Known about the structure:
Layout: E1 2-6, H1 13-21, E2 38-47, E3 63-65, E4 68-77, H2 92-97, E5 104-110, H3 130-149, H4 152-162, H5 166-173, H6 181-191, H7 202-216, E6 219-224, H8 231-241, E7 247-249, H9 252-263, E8 267-268, E9 277-278, H10 286-303, H11 308-319, E10 323-327, E11 345-347, H12 353-360, H13 362-366, E12 368-373, E13 378-380, E14 391-396
Parallel strand pairs: 1-4, 1-5, 5-6, 6-7, 10-14
Antiparallel strand pairs: 2-4, 3-4, 8-9, 10-11, 12-13, 12-14
Amino acid sequence: MLIGLVGKPSCGKSTFFKAATLAEVEIAAYPFTTIKPNSGIGFVKVTCVDKEFNVQCMPRQGFCLQHKRFVPVELMDVAGLVPGAHEGKGMGNAFLDDLRQASVMIHVIDISGSTNEKGEIVAAGSYDPANDIRFLEFELDMWYLRLVEKGWEKFARTLQQEKGEIAKAIAKQLSGLGVTEAMAKDVIQKQQFPEDIMKWGQNVLKRFAVELRKITKPMIIACNKIDISAGPGNFERLRREFPQHVLIACSAEAELALREAAKHGLISYVPGDNKFEILKPERLNETQKLALEFIKKNILEKYGSTGIQHVIDEALFKLLGYIAIFPGGINKFADSEGRILPDVFLMPPRSTALDFAYKLHTDLGKNFIRAIDVKTKRVIGKDYLLRNRDVIEIVTSK
């Protein structure tokens, strides 16, 4: 599971990345601060099941705050993309290729309009952030088209000679992008492409690339710098202008400030919440107190959160449709080392009890007899479709 952070230079990607991971990365107000991709661990938030069983969980990975379970996921911050990236401008080809393994993308934009298309600082509100949404989608589409076109003629001739199945062959050809046979077949049928692959001209290939990009690299828009003057107005306008997109108001700087303050024990804060509690006011100077008050009134109370955690959660649970499943037993929640509910696994949509057994261990899948829904104590079969926050016990023959 890899979440890719994309966007033009100086839009706040690196600040978003640091806020989400608390990793040490270079942050500066000039283009191409990031050259090589930064990889780190972020977290998706799930309401923990421990409270329902009147226990306190002890995570093996991630952490739990006030019965909110934070499950690790990998984040990758690639260098800023500029118009013409797919043609190699600004090392664009290399940066785009870094995104091949991403399952979903978070497009960070400067909603305040205070950076132009090159990432250069301009007066707030003088640049239209709608341009960034259009340009990045175009660059991604052209990148996909380049990958689809690579060796296409030879591929098409071979497929025709061997009378192979188009969708199956394309899935094999583009497996590195996460394209499956079902995806390829669905696009071909919906777009009504010619059955003879030799009749697929440039226009068909472009439409094919665009549709595959939308499926394999779904994208959510993180509208960063919402706290700057022109941000709120631009945000409402872009929500109307791009109704087919998911746009979320964000302030990466605010989230970073809150997480750093919590890390140093100055405040109590659960990422994604709409509030925080000051624990040690005597250790805060006036500037820090004013900053926290600004975050409270202008971001948390207005938008419900800083948006950073919300974006990551939406990307995984809404765009990808993943669910969180807890392994457990009816009579025992602890593992061999005494840790209570130590694990939670992120599963793709339409996962079954048998899929979960294999996720836990190959032997559990091979020797699967049945599963038990621990919450209801109901026996379920291998084809049972799992639901978010299920607690499942696997029963095997060995």
